[in-house]
Amino acid sequence: MRSIWKGVISFGLVSIPVKLYSATEERDVAFHQVRRSDGSRIRYKRVAASDGEEVPYSEIAKGYELPDGETVVLTDDDFANLPLSTSRAIDVLEFVPLDQVDPIYFAKSYYLEPDKTGAKPYVLLRDALESSGRVALVKIALRQREQLATLRVRDGVFVLETMLWPDEVRAPGFGFLDEEIKVRPQELAMASSLIETLAGDFDPTRFTDEYRAALTEMIDAKIAGREIMTAPAAEAGEPAGDLMAALRASIEAARAGRPGGDAAPAGEPEPAASTRASRRAPRAAEQPDAETSAQDAEAGADDAAPTAKAKPGGRKTPPKSAPAKIGPKTAANGAKEPAKTPARRSA
Hints:
Radius of gyration: 33 Å
Strand order of the largest sheet: 1-2-6-9-8-7-5
Number of strands: 9
Largest sheet: 7 strands, mixed, barrel
Number of helices: 8
Shape: extended
Helix content: 25-40%
Structural class: alpha+beta
């Protein structure tokens, strides 16, 4: 790696000389703009809009356009005269808990390597910071721009995370935030069940950039003169009309895609009605739970309408106002009579 900046970490009266390195790199496939007919490279020239003449780089300055269209020209000397105390220093401002820093502020990551003369104070600050459980909030000037940043420890090395200023973060002014959208407990339980089904430990190495792999394969095929096969397009999912049905299907698909996916995690509601039917006989005389599962409660809302109709003999099942947990159990057991009380049901 090649360092892109040299300076010092200013920590009280201690100065630690360091070098700055970019900690990340883009892996995108690079392209040039070319003429389609023969692949000749496209070149750009810096020309003045007023007369079309090419302008050498040495004569290019920065211009700030005013609302009336006029331009204020700023030279390198103008920028050199600006007061910038952090031009060659990383000033430690304070030490804060990392969980108080919203990740939306983070911009880019850099590694800091100590100079030979600064290895000991570097290690001292690193170990003290790591044991504190906090991160250092610092100021640094990079490319003529002063920025806030955090200093934390990763794999024994300081990582500098440059940050945006608060006025650079947009507020989410979306209309739905002012609407009163109600979510039923059954839907929330089902969504929580889906989250638990897909829960796992973070391991980014398990994921790959499939588009980049396909793009590289296509380029290799063109170089080798092979025929390029077009992959079939994936079917686009339909918008969820029935939210509960979509959540059930998502849970089943998630379980099917994992080893041992047929077994439901402990405490997770069972979305399939056939699973409830397998428990009919043993639970015929049991006290029903207060809320056996999100699926039972949802099924109760679906089954309430047909069970409210009059049956032979002039008897009627409980109306829709009956507790939702009784409806699915009665319908699943095929009972001809309604439950006498909410606590028990007839065999």
